[in-house]
């Protein structure tokens, strides 16, 4: 089974900050990686698919990069609506989520 | 609009059974694979099961294999999850989710609002 490890688990940041979240796969997953945003009491929302493709309707301040085993999600300028938990997910072999990264207000 | 609505959650005793439903609308249900994903209280997301668009292939997480069964009725635009031999660790919000494309290997672009399952005596 492929394991996904996100870092950090919690991130404190201010509005306007550039934020980067890392996701590592236990083996190569090519570019079969997605990023989701989840707010308390709500369903996850797809942000990025195939490692770097922006889902329709998602603001351009979100971007993804990487391939193989190392991936990043970057928020170029953090907005008040972005405080949430973010999950990476591999879909190369079955489907596995990372443990999540909570982005908190500093 | 594209929508998934889960139902069937509730409180059940350990060893009991429950069937969840997920009603789809706003897209051609029979053209997309579907998943169940769960989230225990205060925890992260855990993929549970997948069924191909035509029901020809099904996959399960090891944690539910042999106890849960995923199925679909394309004539009713509905996805199901039959859960048997329930355990306390199955307590979670259960989400259904749609694959973004017609392939098994795809992200999940539409999610339902979730239904809570509590396993407790």
Keywords summarizing the entry:
heterodimer; A: 106 residues; mainly beta; seven-stranded mixed sheet; four-stranded antiparallel sheet; 11 strands; globular; B: 121 residues; 0% helix
Describe the structure in your own words:
The complex is a heterodimer of chains A (about 110) and B (about 120). With about 110 residues, chain A is an all-beta fold. Helices cover about 0% and strands about 50% of the residues of chain A. Chain B is an all-beta fold and about 120 residues long. Chain B is built from no helices and 11 strands. In chain B, strands 2, 4, 5, 6, 9, 10 and 11 form a 7-stranded mixed β-sheet that branches. In chain B, strands 1-3-8-7 form a 4-stranded antiparallel β-sheet, with no helix packed on it. The radius of gyration of chain B is 13 Å and the shape is globular.
What do the pLDDT scores of chain B average to?
97
The count of DSSP E runs of length 2 or more, i.e. the number of strands of chain B, is 11
Shape field of chain B:
globular
Helix vs. strand class of chain B: mainly beta
Overall residue-averaged pLDDT value of chain A: 97
Radius of gyration of chain B: 13 Å
* Low-pLDDT ranges of chain A: none
Biggest chain pair contact, residues each? A-B, 24 and 20 residues
Report the total helices of chain B.
Answer: 0
The helicity of chain A comes to: under 10%
The N- and C-terminal alpha carbons of chain A lie at a distance of 36 Å
Distance between the termini of chain B: 39 Å
What spatial form of chain A do the alpha-carbon principal axes imply?
globular
Largest sheet of chain B: 7 strands, mixed
Largest sheet descriptor of chain A: 7 strands, mixed
Helical/strand content category of chain A: mainly beta
In what range is the share of β-strand residues of chain A? over 45%
Instruction: Work out the helicity level of chain B.
Output: under 10%
State the helix count of chain A. Answer: 0
The SSE string of chain A, one letter per element, is EEEEEEEEEEE
Q: What fraction strand of chain B?
A: over 45%
